[in-house]
Design brief:
About 35% of the residues lie in helices and about 15% in strands. The chain contains eleven helices and nine strands.
Length: about 300
């Protein structure tokens, strides 16, 4: 049986318009993310993320480089949004996240992008770095629904989320895909000016897990609902992988789907920080995978073949 995204029921009950109004109201004293800048974005003021009144899209296309449960046979319908509330010094997409590369789009244009990706056969609509454009995304959703949108929405974020915002998204996003970047305050401060990152991240992950639970897939292995967590292994252990993975295993679920990522390389300004100015080693990744297994985690890295086993 084909899965019916939860946003359709929310729309039918008339609650989607209420969420749009509540989210847009936040823009008048912006507290969409954990930085809570308080700027009036509807009046043109700009906060930490550099985002304004309108959504800015860098690109939209079927993406085959995402996690297998999202990609399936026809790709994940990825919409890359410009700007970012974290602005990490090692960002691989810094032209978009720091530079704001992209074009402003109306709700109608954003809805049309969603529908075009669905027509291309994509299994989901995957919003990359949506945190600071949540009101604009949700405002476009009724237009997309009217046009026949019926695939799940993916919230693909850096994990530095305001709990109040995530609560307003219940029933809108069926798949949450947050990063779990850092456990140590000093490293989080050094690389993304967010010393409270881990505390904020844990609260957000708890709420996401409460809403959608563990990642669920159909008979073809395609995700339709649930939480998918990304953890990037970094040089010299600066990500605090043990604390991050222990939290996931013990406070969320040992059945959590965790993509332990090995692709770190020094991008953007990373060369200015000696401890992260090199690629991560195979040994470092293998050690984190082994740690995850010892903690009881088992989903998201099943195919990894490391040197430790």
């Amino acid at each position: 049986m084909e899965y019916r995204p939860s946003y359709l029921a929310l729309h039918e009950r008339g609650e989607l318009e209420e969420r749009i109004a509540a989210l847009r109201a936040i823009l008048r004293s912006c507290a969409l993310c954990a930085r809570r800048c308080g700027v009036d974005r509807l009046a043109g003021e700009i906060g930490y993320c550099k985002a304004g009144k309108e959504a800015v899209v860098s690109s939209a296309f079927p993406h085959y480089g995402e996690e297998a449960p999202l990609v399936g046979m026809h790709g994940s319908g990825t919409i890359f949004l410009a700007h970012c509330n974290l602005r990490c010094v090692f960002c691989q997409n810094w032209e978009i996240s720091h530079g704001g590369e992209g074009r402003e789009v109306s709700p109608r244009a954003l809805a049309d992008m969603m529908l075009a990706l669905q027509r291309a056969g994509c299994h989901n609509i995957n919003f990359v770095t949506p945190t600071h454009f949540v009101p604009q995304i949700v405002e476009a959703l009724p237009l997309a629904i009217k046009g026949g949108l019926k695939v799940p929405l993916v919230y693909n974020c850096g994990g530095y989320e305001a709990l109040e915002t995530i609560k307003l998204l219940e029933g809108i996003f069926d798949i949450y895909m947050p990063d779990a970047k850092f456990a140590d305050q000093s490293w989080a401060k050094r690389y993304c000016d967010a010393p409270d990152y881990f505390a904020v991240n844990k609260d957000a992950l708890r709420e996401m897990h409460r809403q959608v639970g563990e990642l669920k897939m159909d008979a073809l292995g395609i995700a339709y609902r649930g939480l998918l967590i990304r953890h990037l292994v970094m040089p010299n252990g600066v990500a605090g992988s043990e604390a991050v993975l222990r939290f996931i295993a013990e406070e969320l679920s040992a059945d959590s789907y965790v993509n332990i990522m090995a692709q770190y390389r020094p991008c953007y300004r990373a060369h200015q920080f000696p401890e992260i100015a090199r690629a991560v080693s195979h040994k470092e990744v293998a050690e984190v995978i082994a740690l995850a297994r010892r903690l009881g985690l088992h989903r998201g890295f099943e195919d990894y073949r490391g040197v430790l086993w």
